[in-house]
Amino acid sequence: MSPDLSTRRHVSYARGYLGLEMLRAAARELAAIPPAERTRPEVLSARVDLHMAARQWTRVIAAGRRLAQAYPENEHAWIGWAYALREVNRVEEARTVLLAAEAHHGRTSAVLHYNLACYDALLGELKSARARFAKACRMDQRFKDEGRQDPDLQALWSAGSGSK
Hints:
Blueprint: H1 5-19, H2 23-31, H3 41-53, H4 57-70, H5 75-87, H6 91-105, H7 110-122, H8 126-139, H9 142-149, H10 154-157
């Protein structure tokens, strides 16, 4: 069943406000959505984005988990959930989330492999990090340059770094 017109409008407005960095206005739009519609994937996804923009990591973790569990085909949910875990220094958990997401998105998601490379590098799993990074770059060339600037991947570029 598709969302009602009111829900689509509120989500659209919330996304517009997020684009303008008007977080309070975005939150008001999402709060105006009828309770029965609040578990829709587009609403939960907008809520993840709102919490990400506000850097409310515990809320991103909760909303991302809920969205990923209800709609595992939603790649954004897994990536947001894992990213928030990484932001609160729960890197091993972030890695575990993305390993679970791999069953759904491993063949098509360069960003999943890129983030796994980051988490592997942070955990000292450099051989796996290199393989994940190479796969992400094969899937999407933009990660090649981005990866050279990413502090999470610094261990890969350090002179003489070994691999586990």
